[in-house]
Every structure is written in C-alpha cells, then in structure tokens.
Amino acid sequence: MKTVPKLLADVPSPSNGWYSFQLLLDYCSPAVLMTALGNSGVFVLDSVGRFVLATDESPDNPYSKQYAARLLEAHYAELQSPGPEYSWQAERWDTEPHPTYFFGWPREYLPELSANGPIIIPGRRDTEVPWTARTAEEFKAEKNTAGSYTKAAEIHNVTRQRYTEVYNQVVYGRK
Question: Core-most of 99, 101, 131, 149, by most CB within 10 Å?
Fold first, then answer.
C-alpha cells in the first residue's frame, strides 16, 4: 500500500506567491479545489494584478466564486470527456493566460488542501521527483518518446499548455 504524500509538498512554490487553479490542477483534482473554494473562499487576480477576494455575485461575473466554480466544473467535464466545445488543450492558451490562472490563493491564504483529502488522479505517474523538477534531458527524452507535447502531457495528466510551459522553462530557460 502506497503512502499518499502531503498534497502541497509536491507543488513548487511560485515566485510571485500566487497558487493559481492552473498550477494546482496539476497536483489535485477539481473536486479538491471545489471543496477548498466552498470552505475557504477564493481569490481572483483583478485587472491590475491585485489579489482580491472573489465575490458572491452571479456566475457571469468573472470576479465571482460561482465563475470560479464553473471553471472547475468545465475542467472536470473536459477530464471526463474531452471534446471540441471548450478544449482545455486549445492552442490559444499557449500564448495567453488560461482562465484558471486568475483564480487561486496568495501563499499566506492558501488553504490546507491535503485536509480535504487529496485525490490521486488515475494515470498520473508516482515519482519521487515531481515531474516539474526533472532535468532538461529527461524532458527532451520524454517528449521524444511520447511523440508530442500533448501525449507527454497526458502522462502527467496535465494540459498540453502546462506541460509546454514547464518544458520551455526547463529546457530553454523561458518563463
């Protein structure tokens, strides 16, 4: 029987202190984040980059908790049945921030996600080193073996955009 590591132990500390849904979805399920949103609320980056509490307004308001919940629901639906209607793998997210980047928690307000029961996502490799902390050579070999960024991302159950972002950062030193 494997021991489940503390969820946040695997998550790299972002330099700007912003634990976005986009980052956290690489390490836990939408259900864990939805529980945290319900228990602790959630923050949103406003139009000038400030961390502000999401409001209780309608789901149409991009600064509301309900909007954040809809993003998590859409991500879950995409995991269950990937399709063309709203693809989280769309190439546009390679050049512009994904909507899940704007919701999350500043470091000092990050809820204890492991207390919500970390959910291990099927198909994710169990490695001693988080996939984001590997060497450039390991990334290159993995991508070549997988045949594409999309296939390599599927190994870690992350979006192609997230995989490409980390790949470029490690291999080419790009942020």
Answer: 131
